[in-house]
Design goal:
- By secondary structure, the protein is α/β, with parallel strands linked by helices.
- The protein has 4 domains: about 20-120, no CATH class; about 140-155 and about 220-370, Nucleotidyltransferase, domain 5 (2-Layer Sandwich); about 160-215, no CATH class; about 420-454.
- Helices cover about 50% and strands about 10% of the residues.
- The protein has helices at about 25-40, 40-50, 65-75, 80-90, 95-100, 110-120, 120-140, 170-180, 190-200, 255-275, 295-300, 325-335, 340-360, 375-395, 410-415, 420-440, 445-454, and strands spanning about 145-155, 165, 210, 220, 230-240, 245-250, 285, 305.
- α4 crosses α6 (about 110-120).
- It is globular and about 80 Å long.
- About 35% of the residues are buried.
Length: about 450
């Protein structure tokens, strides 16, 4: 047998269109395409973005619907960076079909995503987020009477080693060198500086004195794992009945939860109005980090009942305080002690934290690769819109993400044909059978048994 030789890469071969590879498509993305097409998602995005483009001048841009779909792919595939999204879309035939790309048409580059994001203001992304809520409203999956609010931290695209003083512009090494010189160390080495910095007292880094030169909007904060990073704060308002996120706000990481609660609730009410819902938010549930007498009084003025546990404090005096604070605190305390208050707190701890797990952990939004508060907000809004679409898809077809293995029967139901559903359901059934066999017979050849069963 002769040695096979690989053909030269420079050889040009003409291939008929009928001979090009075709993908049967992914059942999840095909169903999602049907939902977006039924709601007129692409036409809505084109009309919304038209004022920010020139009229009939230059070459046509990437359709806005394709841009927002690629960001949705980033959530569903758990991809953090735009480079990863662009590579995944160009590599997958199923995703190219989801984007509506032709066979010989190149998928958008990551730089194109950056250009479009900077061109479109944050208000456009907010209206696209509200459009997804309107789809849920049409399907009867949006209530909005009782919402729960909680916050988490997002790691910024900036390093703690690069922070500088706001007053003088000195970096950390220059600042410590000046302190060492004032302490009597002349021309210290790098090792001596590190030893001096490690042993000196009162070593704290404040947002009032330090900032990042590459991302001034980021703030020094402690993350969920206990590490200190430059970060932002993301806050969700979740409909407790349907688990839809009705508001996703991004703030500076040093803003207290009690300062941003009212703004988040106002944004949630506005999104409900944009989605076509006539429901007013009547109850707000949050943890004890949101408890503040001024904030509770603001909620009473906004005709909102609050269920916010009160942290342990000394006995308070209300003399000279704002009118209505005492009544608001006592009424909130009474509601929290009731059965309904305890039940709402259990729902809050379960459902709001679940939204953060889906968006930040499996959705790839915990680490931001974009700089600037507005730019991070744009990307995060579409990430949360993808989460809402996942809830909608789970209610309609039984599968909320393309990677979920929630049951082979759901895959069969979500497919256009039985053979296509069986093609995707068979690996699910085999993997589950293999896990069951490994638990029952850990020392046997489970792979051979699985193949025999197949």
């Amino acid at each position: 047998m002769a040695v096979g030789r690989r053909e030269s890469d420079e050889q040009v071969e003409w291939v008929m269109t009928t001979d090009l590879p075709k993908s049967p498509g992914h059942p999840f993305y095909r169903k999602l395409n049907g939902v977006l097409r039924e709601s007129g998602f692409d036409r809505f995005c084109e009309q919304l973005c038209a004022p920010y483009y020139a009229e009939r001048m230059g070459r046509p841009s990437i359709p806005p619907g394709v841009y927002f779909r690629m960001l949705l792919v980033g959530y569903f595939e758990g991809i953090e960076s735009q480079r990863g999204i662009a590579w995944r879309c160009s590599d997958s035939l199923a995703l190219r079909e989801f984007l509506g790309m032709k066979v010989r048409q190149a998928s958008p580059d990551h730089s194109s995503l950056t250009v479009i994001r900077k061109r479109l203001p944050v208000e456009v992304h907010e209206q696209v987020f509200a459009k997804v809520l309107s789809i849920a409203q049409e399907k009867g999956l949006l209530k909005g009477g009782t919402v729960a609010v909680d916050a988490t931290t997002l790691e910024a695209n900036a390093a703690m080693k690069s922070i500088v003083r706001k007053d003088s512009g000195e970096d950390w090494k220059e600042y410590v060198g000046k302190l060492a010189k004032e302490a009597g160390l002349e021309n210290p080495t790098a090792e001596e500086l590190r030893r001096f910095d490690r042993k000196r007292k009162g070593k704290k880094v404040s947002n009032d004195d330090w900032q990042s030169p590459s991302d001034p909007d980021s703030r020094i904060a402690k993350m969920k794992d206990g590490d200190t990073h430059l970060a932002y704060k993301a806050e969700h308002a979740v409909d407790l009945k349907t688990e839809m996120v009705v508001a996703a706000q991004v703030y500076h990481a040093d803003q207290a939860d009690s300062e941003t609660l009212i703004e988040t609730l106002y944004a949630a009410q506005e999104n409900l109005r944009e989605a076509g819902s006539e429901q007013n938010i009547q109850e707000a549930v949050a943890d004890k980090g949101y408890h503040k007498a001024d904030t509770l009084a603001d909620c009473v003025e906004a005709e909102l009942r609050t269920y916010i546990p009160e942290p342990k404090r000394k006995r308070r005096t209300w003399r000279g305080k704002r009118e209505g604070q005492q009544e608001a605190v006592y009424a909130n305390r009474r509601r929290c002690k009731g059965e309904r208050g305890k039940r709402l707190q259990r729902w809050r701890s379960e459902r709001v934290e679940r939204s953060f797990a889906h968006v930040c952990e499996t959705g790839g939004a915990r680490r931001s690769w974009i700089r600037g508060l507005l730019e991070v907000t744009k990307r995060y809004l579409i990430q949360v819109a993808g989460h809402n679409l996942g809830i909608l898809m789970r209610k309609l077809f039984g599968i909320g993400t393309p990677r979920s293995l929630q049951g082979s029967s759901c895959v069969l139901l979500s497919s256009d044909s039985p053979w296509e559903g069986l093609h995707f359901a068979l690996p699910c059934m085999l993997s589950r059978l293999e896990r069951i066999l490994r638990l029952k017979w850990p020392r046997h050849d489970v792979v051979a048994m699985t193949q025999a069963a197949a």
